[in-house]
DNA sequence: AAGCCAATCAACCGCCGTGAG
DNA sequence: ACTCACGGCGGTTGATTGGCT
């Protein structure tokens, strides 16, 4: 006997969210806060699975989300945390305010993984990849020799040399990150947020709102209404304990 | 201009841990 | 102790976009 589906799938909409659906979801959550996700679509008038609503909110509509590529510092932190935690994206994301696990996972798979490999570092173990012995040129360089392609050969040598120096850079970078990171824990011991860490003073509470317009712009949808809603209902939110918990 | 391919990222799927009954 | 529903997580998929030929 299999598990019951999380919701009735018949007649539910799938695929990309429309601006109209976003509007409904945001309006509902701003008015009611986050309650039982299973009930959200019904109450908000959405033909979506509760899970889908939660995902849309946490990964895209939440007003405290940052947008755009990760900064150098964030990237360093992700690499460092990944070396300690592995693919525990939500744990990694919890150390990067405004970033979601999905975003970090995607960024890792599309950018960092590639970058580390290029530098001769195994992205899973964070150790040097099994390399070709120094006296044996890499295959591409060997091919260049075979073809007598001196320019290509120069390029390969240049690449190999810069890979070595990049790898040294990365090693020292990781050491620095480990030494300076405020995060100190072993693999199975992830610190929980203390109450003072998420109960933000009211001045900080406004920070997400200042970024909201830009987020709306960057995500391409017409989300000005969300910003307006957010502003107009902020006083309500400030009294809402669950919101404080979720946002900070 | 058109077709192809790779990169990107939002969204989905299915499993797992947890807590209530 | 057990079952079940729920939220959360990580892996994967697929639509879209941009670059190249």
TrEMBL record:
This is MYB protein. One of its GO terms (cellular component) is nucleus. It holds the Pfam family Myb_DNA-binding. Residues 144-154 have a biased composition (Basic and acidic residues). It comes from Zingiber officinale. GO terms for molecular function: transcription cis-regulatory region binding. Keywords: DNA-binding, Nucleus, Repeat, Transcription, Transcription regulation. It comes from the Eukaryota.
């Amino acid at each position: 006997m299999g598990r019951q589906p999380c919701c009735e799938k018949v007649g539910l909409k799938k695929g990309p969210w429309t601006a109209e659906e976003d509007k409904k979801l945001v309006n509902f959550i701003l008015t009611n806060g986050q309650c039982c996700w299973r009930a959200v679509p019904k109450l908000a008038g959405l033909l979506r699975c509760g899970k889908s609503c939660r995902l849309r909110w946490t990964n895209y509509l939440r007003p405290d989300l940052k947008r755009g590529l990760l900064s150098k510092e964030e990237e360093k932190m992700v690499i460092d945390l990944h070396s300690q935690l592995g693919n525990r994206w939500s744990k990694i994301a919890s150390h990067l305010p405004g970033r979601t696990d999905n975003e970090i996972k995607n960024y890792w798979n599309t950018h960092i993984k590639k970058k580390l490999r290029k530098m001769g570092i195994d992205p899973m173990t964070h150790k040097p990849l099994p390399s070709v012995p120094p006296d044996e040129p890499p295959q591409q360089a060997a091919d260049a020799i075979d073809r007598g392609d001196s320019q290509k050969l120069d390029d390969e040598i240049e690449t190999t040399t810069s890979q070595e120096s990049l790898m040294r850079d990365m090693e020292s970078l990781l050491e620095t990150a480990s030494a300076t990171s405020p995060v100190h824990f072993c693999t199975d011991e992830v610190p929980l947020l203390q109450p003072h860490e998420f109960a933000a003073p009211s001045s900080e509470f406004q920070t997400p709102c200042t970024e909201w317009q830009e987020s709306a712009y960057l995500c391409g949808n017409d989300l000005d209404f969300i910003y307006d809603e957010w502003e107009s209902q902020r006083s309500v939110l400030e009294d809402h304990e669950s919101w404080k918990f979720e946002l900070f």
